[in-house]
C-alpha cells in the first residue's frame, strides 16, 4: 500500500479574539491528520490534539505568533498563524 502524504496546513493564517470572550480556531489540513500541535498559544487557550480545535477564553490582550503542526503516518506539515487578542 502507498504511504500517506504528509498533511498540508490549510487553515486561516490570522485570527482575532477578545480578552475574556470565548475563542475557537479550527486547524485544518489535507491528508487526514491524526494529531495536532500548537506552540505559542496565549494564556487561557488549549488545543484538542486529536480534533485540532484551539479553544478557551484568552486572559490577556496580546498578539501571538502560533506555530501549528499536523501529523499523519506520512509525516508532519507545519504552518503558522497570528492570533490577535483585543
Q: What can you tell me about this protein's structure?
A:
The protein has 86 residues and is an all-beta fold. The protein has strands spanning 14-17, 23-26, 35-39, 45-48, 53-56, 62-72, 75-85. The strands form 2 sheets. A 4-stranded mixed β-sheet has the order 1-7-6-3, with no helix packed on it. The model has no long low-confidence stretch (mean pLDDT 96).
Distance between the termini: 49 Å
Strand order of the largest sheet: 1-7-6-3
Global outline: elongated
Low-pLDDT runs of 5+ residues are none
The rounded Rg comes to 13 Å
Q: Quick check: average pLDDT?
A: 96
Number of helices: 0
Question: How many DSSP E strands?
Answer: 7
**Backbone structural class:** mainly beta
Strand content: over 45%
DSSP helix fraction: under 10%
**Major sheet size, sense and barrel closure:** 4 strands, mixed
H-E string: EEEEEEE
Short description:
This protein is mostly beta strands and 86 residues long. It is built from no helices and 7 strands.
Please give the structural blueprint.
Layout: E1 14-17, E2 23-26, E3 35-39, E4 45-48, E5 53-56, E6 62-72, E7 75-85
Parallel strand pairs: 1-7
Antiparallel strand pairs: 2-5, 3-6, 4-5, 6-7
Please describe the structure with a list of short key phrases separated by commas or semicolons.
86 residues; mainly beta; four-stranded mixed sheet; three-stranded antiparallel sheet; elongated
Amino acid at each position: 500500500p502507498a504511504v500517506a502524504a504528509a498533511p498540508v496546513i490549510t487553515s486561516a493564517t490570522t485570527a482575532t479574539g477578545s480578552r475574556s470572550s470565548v475563542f475557537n480556531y479550527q486547524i485544518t489540513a489535507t491528508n487526514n491528520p491524526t494529531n495536532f500541535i500548537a506552540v505559542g498559544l496565549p494564556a487561557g487557550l488549549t488545543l484538542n490534539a486529536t480534533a485540532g480545535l484551539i479553544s478557551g477564553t484568552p486572559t490577556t490582550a496580546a498578539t501571538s505568533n502560533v506555530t501549528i503542526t499536523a501529523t499523519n503516518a506520512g509525516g508532519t506539515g507545519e504552518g503558522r498563524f497570528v492570533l490577535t487578542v483585543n
